[in-house]
Amino acid sequence: LGATRVFTIGNSSSTTEELTVSALVSGATFGITKDGAGTLVLSNSGNSYTGNTSLTNNASTGIIRSGADNVLPNASTLAPAGNGTIDLAGFSDTVNGTGANAIFFGLNSVGQTMTIATGAGTLTIGGNIGQDSNGFGTKAITGNLNLGGATRTIQANGGLLDISAIVSNGGFTNPANLRLSGANIFAGGISLTGNTTQMGIDP
Q1: What gap in Å lies between CA 122 and CA 111, rounded to an integer?
Q2: CA 10, CA 75: separation in Å to the nearest integer?
Q3: DSSP symbol at 25
Q4: How far apart are CA 26 and CA 183, in angstroms?
Q5: Which of 6, 75, 83, 102 could cross-link 97 (Cys pair, CB 3.0–4.6 Å)?
Q6: Least confidently predicted of 66-75, 92-101, 182-191
Q7: What is the value of pTM for the model shown?
Q8: Which residues are CB-contacts of 68 (< 8 A; sequence separation ≥ 6)?
């Protein structure tokens, strides 16, 4: 990649269109952005770009889907937005992110939900969870989330962060407006600091 590339797949209503990229995607500081209502499938476990893996802020943003284990580069930050989904589809992956955040939830509106889903797979993060202050809708993480053996900071911005994933191997600090509803097994605890406005825990 010589620049961050935008993959537009489908229009605002065409959800059945799908593009699979089996080529190795590389590029220092550059990433991938998905637009349109269709699906982008990444299937090369050698991908090494270091920019964000992101979705645009649209009502029908569609899906970035894994086609194998470890297709998301370790140095990439997962950055969903709008109503979009980053779906590991039962595969497992590790992301450390660029800078402090392994995950950064971007812009969305009330009534929209941006999602990171793993299915039966596991997402391991080596960084924190950031949020755009104008992300007023819901952010969701489903499936299995491994915190990489550390206490992860959740940036206190935006709307509800709903983690129904089974969380393991770490803890949380500063979890403003967080809801945990999975059968969690993490032992690192939850440090409540800042403006925590909502928390529901269903162990």
Answers
A1: 27
A2: 28
A3: -
A4: 37
A5: 102
A6: 182-191
A7: 0.90
A8: 43, 44, 45, 91
